[in-house]
Amino acid sequence: MNQPRREIAQMENAHVEEAYARWAPVYDLAFATIMAPGRRAAAAAAQRGAELILDVGVGTGLELPLFDVGVKLVGVDLSEPMLRRAQNRVEREKLRQVAGLCVMDATRLAFADARFDAVVAPYVLTVVPDPPATLDELARVVKPGGEIVLVNHVGAESGPIAWAERWLGQKSAALGWRPEFPWSILSDWLLSRDDMRLVERRKIAPLGLFTLTRIGRLK
Fold first, then answer.
1. How confident is residue 5, by pLDDT bands cut at 50, 70 and 90?
2. CATH of the domain at 97
3. Residue 9: closest CA among 78, 101, 57, 75
4. Predicted confidence (pLDDT) at residue 114 exceeds the cutoff of 50
């Protein structure tokens, strides 16, 4: 990432941090139910055949109890208030599968190349300021043969829903996410990489509002 893009990303990250500091006290109440099917689907897909899993954008840790005790999880998030709630959840529910939680920027992960068997990032790409740079980092830290598992709302291409998403997008700094997120961001990134392939793309509940995407690293 060049310097101007990095500076812009840092400013946008600051907006995200502010937004999620506000959301942290009520996040579970507001989003636990509607996002639960996506979290279950992401956890189930990520832990198939995986031992060491990175959870990017772990937030308050809503999906952490969904992972089997036989895996080892490392969770990262940009928001310290959200991570404090995740740590409380780990201690309260005695989640032995969680090896650690760290404050970290998804575009600059402090892990070695090919470190993890799988990377799960539910509801993250609509939040980060530079989705392709984030995808590059997720690809860097996953092992060849491993998978990146994403869950996101993918924006409508036309019609009244697309109009509403564009309107909401103007409020995205306050919301903390990007409602109008297009599939082309993912498809263009995949076309730019000869080491990654689309494994699965499917709508999930509720009402197909979110999309599960599995991306495999070939080499």
1. very low
2. 3.40.50.150
3. 78
4. yes
Show Cβ contacts of residue 70 under 8 Å, excluding neighbours closer than 6 positions.
51, 97
| Model confidence band, residue 147 (pLDDT cutoffs 50, 70, 90) | very high
10 Å CB burial of residue 128 (0-12, 13-18, 19+) is buried
Strand partners, 200: 214
* 213 contact partners, CB below 8 Å, separation of at least 6: 149, 150, 151, 152, 186, 198, 200, 201
Tokens matching residue 106: 């998804």
Distance of alpha carbon 12 from alpha carbon 94, whole angstroms = 35
Prediction pTM value:
0.82
Alpha carbon distances (Å) from 145 to 21, 96, 195, 212: 36, 26, 10, 19
DSSP 112: -
pLDDT band at residue 96 using 50, 70 and 90 as cut-offs: very high
What does the alpha-carbon distance between residue 143 and residue 186 come to, in Å, rounded to a whole number? 20
- 116, 143 Cβ separation under 8 angstroms: yes
Q: Which residues constitute the domain of residue 166?
A: 3-217
Strands (E), 104-207: 116-122, 142-152, 196-204
Task: Tell me the C-alpha distance between 219 and 217, whole Å.
Answer: 6
Count of structural domains within the chain: 1
Which residue type sits at 117? Answer: D
